[in-house]
Amino acid sequence: MTWLPSDGVRKALLIGMLALVSAGCSMGDDGVEATASSVEQPAACPAAWKPGWQKLADDVGMRVYCPTWMPSPIDAEIGGQWNSDGVAVGKDRSYLAGFLWHEAGSGDVHVNFRGYPGKTAIPRCVETQTSGGKTRRRSVPCFSDPQGTREVGGKTVTVYTVSRDADQWHVTYAWKENGSLYAVSEHVAPPLTLRRVLQNLDRIVGGLEGIEPKA
Question: Is position 35 within any domain?
């Protein structure tokens, strides 16, 4: 069974890691091979990925952000090997594009991209709790426990330590832009450490390329 820290433990770890990053301290390599590559980050959305992101921008009628880098072994090709579920687009044009590598006994690498056209409020998720044989449902924020803001790639992102729904056990970076909310999250689970997830999110969000919908 894979051990995952409680919300309280995870929050304490993240606060410590964020303090190190804010202080400019070096966080050396943790020896995990299935994560950040030493290859220089591309300056633009790779040609193989761009058509899918362009179609998404056209479908939802808003700017979307294509990453220029993704943690190994996954890529961000919509409809590709690591995006088996494609892109989920809601009636309100909000979208979820998830990319996942999973191997039993080894863990996973899972990154989600979200956008909420014309909405800047944190979306709501339904949480189910069972106690004494009774099931209770309640509406809760999909992203909570904010740990302040950071400047990443020219964006002021809020770091959330608790995420729900498809982002459960993820750290989420969210920001507001032109009246819309965007979010990028990554799962904190082996083979990734919390430190590596923060490094990955900095690199992903720091290298995003905006793709505008065609007229």
Answer: no
Asked if residue 34 has pLDDT above 70, the reply is no
Q: In whole angstroms, what is the distance from residue 62 CA to residue 54 CA?
A: 10
CA nearest to 13, candidates 188, 164, 204: 188
What's at 111, amino acid-wise? V
pLDDT in tens, 90-99: 999 999 999 9
- 118 falls within a domain: yes
Quick one: three-class SS letters along the chain?
Answer: CCCCCCHHHHHHHHHHHHHHHHCCCCCCCCCCCCCCCCCCCCCCCCCCCHHHHHHHHHHHCCCEEECCCCCCCCCCCCCCCCCCCCEEECCCCCEEEEEEEEECCCEEEEEEEEEECCCCCCCEEEEEEEECCEEEEEEEECEEEEEEEEEECCEEEEEEEEECHHHCCEEEEEEEECCEEEEEEEECCCCCCHHHHHHHHHHHHHCCEEECCCC
Which pTM value belongs to this model? Answer: 0.83
Instruction: Let me know if residue 202 belongs to a domain.
Output: yes
What is the extent of the structural domain holding 118? Answer: 41-211
